[in-house]
Amino acid sequence: MEHSEDQAMPENQNNNKPQYPNPRFASEGCSVLLDVNDGDRLVFARLSGGAIFKIGNKNYSLKPLIGAPFGSLFQVETGEEGSFLSRILPIKKESSSVNVVEDGRDNRELIDDNESQNLTGEEIEAMRREGAKGEEIIEALIANSKTFDKKFQLSQEKYLLKKQKKYAPKVLLRRPFARSICEAYFKKYPARIGFIRVDALSLLLTMANVTAYSDVLVVDMVGGLITGAVAERLGGTGYVCNTYKGNSPSCVDMVRMFNFTDKVKERIVHSSISELSSAKTAPPEENNQQGGVCKSEININESSASDMVEDVSVTAEARVVDDVVTESKTIKAPQPGAKASKEAVEMWKENGFSSLIMAAQDQDPWTLAKDVLPLLSYSAPFAIYHQYLQPLATCMHNLQQGKMAINVQITEPWLREYQVLPSRSHPHMQMSSFGGYVLSGIRISTT
Amino acid sequence: MLPTESKKALSFKRYIEEGDLVIVYERNDVMKPVKVIKDGVLQNRFGVYKHSDWIGKPLGTKVFSNKGKFVYLLAPTPELWTLVLSHRTQILYIADISFVLMYLEVVPGCIVLESGTGSGSLSTSLARAVAPTGHVYSFDFQEQRAVCAREDFEKTGISSLVTVEVRDIQGQGFPEKLSGLADSVFLDLPQPWLAVPSAAKMLKEDGVLCSFSPCIEQVQRTCEVLRSYFIQIRTFEVLLRTYEVNELKVDTGSMIGENQDADNEESRPSKRKHRSNEDDTISHDNSYNATSVVMAPPCSEARGHTGYLTFAKLQCLYLSLKGWIYNSTSYHVLDTL
Questions:
Q1: Do B25 and A420 touch (CB under 8 A)?
Q2: CA torsion sign, A239 to A242 to A243 to A247?
Q3: Which of A246, A440, B41, B212 could form a disulfide with B188 if both were Cys (CB 3.0 to 4.6 A apart)?
Q4: DSSP conformation class of A25
């Protein structure tokens, strides 16, 4: 009954020894996700002593974040040398069971005439200059509100939350993961990732059976999101090979946000479709191993440093202003994705890839699939993402007609978030109504 | 099912051997797991298939019955397994499974706790995600289910990655020895709120918890307890809509200005289906003014609800590892530690 329990335990404890750098702590030079006010704003930044982060109209140094564990919460404070971020430890709240008192108050006495607040903007600003904490400002606001006491208990809570976000913003230090990177991009720059919502991304990875030791072929034309997400699941084993039409590999710059170790990065490679599908004798140009460095890479290199820090900030006024020039010189992660070695290419020609994920914007999936699918082993699953249904339908039809695949289907994920509060649970009033389509199937032998 | 070393990856595993688990694929909705035995036979409505014919064939190929009918033999994956496993309980399906894996941030090397084991549908996908160095500890309060799950994991070849124990997690909590070791915890229990304090204890700093419940009342009570230990508490519902793909003939003849008589005469003989060729799916038949079009309507029936997924991150209470000195005077809560 207790089989393998005993032998498995000590082994796992060994695995749990903190590695260096500990991925659960934010170290200098690593990429972090800053989450302001519980997801209202998401900003990626690379930690350095000089990095500056703007909240409202004030700049804050990111230095206090270096060395902090991921998941730490920070709030803004004003000290003698100006405003700074300071770590707060959440105080254990006692579980507040259903405490919605029967409350007869409603909004009949609330008149929206902008007269209910006695405190003026100048007075609030003065308090801030004197170093008042966010909570103190909020207290003052409540004391000077004519209507706060008349509000229903639930709208009082809402009011407090709104004021807390404005006057006492909280910054959560998050570890960049495929999930958070996808969410952040989807919120701010969905077009850059081809409108792949996080549930669609998760479907792609699952349907393509991505696991350790697999050789995953990807056609990533969504900035490296797919490549990074696959590499994350390979954990430094197998390969993720990004293939492309023409001469220059697609840009996979987003991979740099994942904080991958060298072991994982080594497993990210690229190779053109023609190299992968050509007959076994290598054409002469293939000798030139370093020559195929991605063309777009060069442009990206120039812009990537600034891209990295100002990317994906959720509100328009928000951006991380950093000393871009010095940063790009001091801490610069090497460009992800080397050219696949000749041995690897030969191995794939011999054995085929173990699965395929395609996410190619502005490309016809069938045109790509008919060239790329034959590179897979028989029985290998594939998942093709597209923002539009029709090209996938055509692709599915052709796959079926050509008897190239079985278990083919087109799915569209649907994701709804809920507010869960005592007596106030309901779906969110706003939701994303579209996250993309996925065509999945299993490649078979046509003979 | 899962490669434990590079040479066992699907791309290297090209030929079926005795002892392999294969998925026999008849149709989209008719599949069966079969262990290949030298003298074994498979019987279905299309006849008898001899296992000995399969050995040495590559996966993903057709094999024929004595009546000349064929099925495909496929390599097992957690997705196919979810479709063919024997249901001892209500199981999680691909949409929820994928989303849970993504949100729990399960990657190779992670330690994941799960309760209950149920039919092992999620466990199989968790094992795939933590392989090769991580581990899944799965708990079920029913002895019989645990035994069956272990047999299944043995069959699918993932038993080195999953440990199944009989334990009432709601009543006893997770075992002490796993305290602080888990990267993520998954709860699929009738009263998940009872297990939350123990789950919090098992998790590493910043670890993620997921609770799956079909009813909103369960979610409500769970969230109340979660708020004492966790942050970033979010509840989701994830569903899939599937599409059919049909090739239809659509009359594209103009309503006016056409010579109807001439049209009709010519159209009759060409009513037979025009198979579109590979690169041009829309085949025009000028005489009939009909165009063959590929269309994708949504399937008319779908799963309407599976369960609510509530995720939460453990609050980060520790200051830091050694070496991190907090450079400000504002640590007001310091003394509580």
A1: no
A2: negative
A3: B212
A4: B
Check whether residue B88 and residue B134 sit in a common domain.
Answer: yes
Average pLDDT, chain B: 84
Q: Which of B19, B42, B76 is the last residue of a domain?
A: B76
Question: What is the pLDDT, as a whole number, of residue B334?
Answer: 31
Q: How far is B34 from chain A (nearest CA, A)?
A: 16
Check CB contact under 8 Å for B240 and A212. Answer: no
Our CA-based measurement puts residue A341 at a distance from the nearest CA of chain B, in whole angstroms, of 17
ipTM at complex level:
0.86
Q: Which H/E stretch holds residue A275?
A: helix A273-277
Residue B134, domain member (yes or no):
yes
Phi, psi values for residue A60, rounded to 5°: -130, 140
Task: Kindly state whether residues B106 and B232 are assigned to the same domain.
Answer: yes
What is the pTM for the complete model shown? Answer: 0.83
What is the arrangement of strands in the sheet containing B21-27, beginning at the earlier edge strand?
Answer: B30-35, B21-27, B70-74, B62-64
Site from A85, A136, A206, A264 to mutate, B interface, most B CB atoms within 10 angstroms:
A206
Crossing angle (nearest 10°) for helices A178-188 and B94-103: 100
For residue B124, give the nearest of B85, B89, B177 by alpha carbon: B85
Pairwise CB contact (< 8 Å): A213 & B132: yes
Residue B266 domain-assigned? no
Rounded to a whole number, what is the distance in Å from the CA of A430 to chain B's nearest CA? Answer: 13
| Statement to judge: residues B99 and B231 lie in one domain | yes
Asked if residue A23 lies in contact with residue A175, where contact means CB atoms within 8 angstroms, the answer is yes
- A389 vs B8: CB contact, 8 Å cut-off? no
Q: Is A166 in contact with A125 (CB distance < 8 Å)?
A: no
Amino acid at A129: R
B125 marked as binding residue: no
Who's near A165: CB < 8 A, 6+ residues apart? A37, A40
Sign of the four-CA dihedral A104, A109, A113, A116: negative
Measured distance CA(B13)–CA(B17) in Å, rounded:
9
Q: Which residue of B has its CA nearest to A65?
A: B326
The CATH architecture that domain A178-294+335-443 belongs to is 3-Layer(aba) Sandwich (3.40)
Q: Are residues B62 and B97 both part of a single domain?
A: no
The CATH code of the domain that includes B19 is 3.10.330.20
Range of the domain at B27: 6-76
Centroid of chain to Cα B21: 18
A218 contacts A228 by C-beta, under 8 angstroms = no
Indicate if B90 and B18 belong to the same structural domain. Answer: no
**Chain A residues whose beta carbon lies within 8 Å of the beta carbon of residue B275:** 401
Q: Which of B9, B97, B163 sits opposite A214 (nearest CB)?
A: B9
Angle between helices A121-129 and A134-143 (to 10 degrees): 150
Whether residue B33 is contained in a domain is answered as yes
CA gyration radius, chain A: 26
B330 is in an annotated binding site: no
Q: Which residue has the tokens 């796993």?
A: B178
* pLDDT tens readout for residues B74-125: 999 999 999 999 888 888 899 999 999 999 999 999 999 999 999 999 999 9
Radius of gyration of chain B (CA): 27
Chain A CA closest to residue B108? A235
Q: What is the CATH number of the domain that holds B114?
A: 3.40.50.150
Query: What is the torsional sign of CA B102, B108, B114, B118?
Result: positive
Going by C-alpha positions, the residue among A438, A383, A436 that lies closest to residue A410 is A438
What does each C-alpha distance from B85 to A18, A407, B142 come to in angstroms?
38, 17, 18
Q: Where in chain A is the domain with CATH 3.40.50.150?
A: 178-294+335-443
Q: pLDDT by residue (tens digit) across A363-384?
A: 999 999 999 999 999 999 999 9
For the packed helices A389-401 and A365-372, what is the interaxial angle rounded to 10 degrees? 40
